[in-house]
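PROTEIN DESIGN WORKSHEET
SECTION A - STRUCTURE
LENGTH: 358
TOKENS:
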């Protein structure tokens, strides 16, 4: 009987291997983007930090479909210029009727499934590039996720427009932890006081999100609710976009608890919660699009180096498609920091340039 079972197992393994070999081999395809911007900014504290900015990435994608219909693939993002990691994101995925699993270094579902106000220009007011052009305005972010981390992620299939997701990154020491010496006023993706993929003590990071997308009588609706736990606290938020005709109107809100990203053994928290929201409207006509977006943030942190601050920003964005994968984009922006018991600083500027998607 044992011999029969062993023989049957061997034949089954051989059959599975044969089926796997029958699928198409994985071949890589290339993609990515390049952005080149020129602009200026002026403020109460000085002129623009930069006159020119660039950002480019090359994507390597490979996928095969097994004989049972399951898709297996990989995604790798190569930074064209960087002072740290040359590889931005890299993960493997398995997708089928059961949903989609991802494992590797990438964003959480709280980030990837979130919805914010529409904006078409190169300088967004929500987690945008305004802080790259001026030091006078703090970063506003309604979706302050943990950024790229080594994690496992699961997305459910879409049911009547609804989809949910969950991500988990372990306390392996490769996840960032709160550091009171980190300046969290202007550093993108480190609003929690940690650096992405840093060599710290590490904390488990659990991220959840649910989203809906549908259309009724020519009106499109997109909704999201997301949250993330790291250390002793959480951040959570909601977002919505409504499209009708050539218009899209949207808004989002996020709340960060003062102990989000603070390790259990840390004696210091943020010193206060943070609330932020944005609101915007866009209009598209043929190859052209225009948007007007406003954002506000109330940072209640009160520490030795940071005072409670109210920040607001406005961006008028323009986009025009010149051809397949080529768009000309521009922004005119204004921002203000109002420090409690301190100074109020204003900044304004204009940026224009090209984005190539390939």
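SECTION B - SEQUENCE
RESIDUE ASSIGNMENT:
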């Amino acid at each position: 009987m044992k011999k029969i079972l062993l023989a049957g197992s061997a034949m089954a393994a051989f059959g599975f291997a044969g089926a796997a070999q029958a699928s198409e081999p994985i071949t890589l395809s290339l993609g990515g983007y390049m952005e080149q911007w020129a602009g200026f900014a002026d403020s109460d504290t000085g002129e623009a930090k930069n006159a020119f900015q660039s950002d480019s990435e090359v994507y390597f994608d490979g996928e095969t479909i097994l004989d049972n219909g399951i898709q297996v693939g990989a995604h790798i993002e190569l930074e064209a210029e960087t002072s740290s990691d040359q590889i931005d994101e890299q993960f493997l995925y398995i997708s089928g009727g059961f949903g989609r699993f991802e494992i590797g270094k990438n964003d959480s579902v709280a980030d990837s499934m979130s919805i914010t106000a529409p904006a078409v220009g190169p300088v967004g007011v929500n987690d945008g590039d305004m802080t790259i052009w001026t030091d006078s305005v703090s970063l506003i972010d309604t979706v302050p996720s943990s950024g790229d981390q080594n994690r496992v992620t699961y997305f459910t299939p879409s049911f009547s427009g609804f989809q949910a997701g969950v991500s988990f990154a372990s306390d392996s020491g490769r996840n960032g932890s709160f550091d009171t010496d980190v300046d969290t006023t202007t550093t993108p993706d480190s609003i929690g006081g940690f650096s992405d993929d840093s060599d710290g003590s590490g904390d488990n990071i659990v991220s959840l999100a649910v989203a809906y997308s549908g259309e009724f009588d020519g009106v499109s609706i997109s909704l999201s609710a997301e949250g993330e736990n790291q250390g002793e606290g959480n951040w959570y938020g909601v977002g919505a976009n409504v499209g009708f005709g050539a218009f899209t109107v949207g808004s989002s809100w996020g709340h960060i608890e003062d102990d989000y990203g603070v390790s259990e053994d840390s004696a210091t928290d943020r010193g206060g919660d943070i609330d932020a929201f944005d609101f915007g409207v866009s209009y598209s006509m043929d190859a052209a699009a225009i948007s007007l977006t406003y954002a506000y943030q109330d940072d209640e942190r009160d520490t030795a180096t940071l005072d409670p601050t109210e920040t607001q920003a406005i961006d008028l964005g323009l986009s025009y498609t010149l051809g397949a994968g080529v768009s000309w984009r521009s922004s005119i922006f204004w921002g203000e920091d109002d420090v409690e018991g301190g100074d109020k600083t204003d900044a304004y500027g204009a940026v224009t340039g090209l984005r190539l998607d390939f």
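SECTION C - NOTES
The chain has one domain: 2-357.
The longest helix spans residues 2-22.
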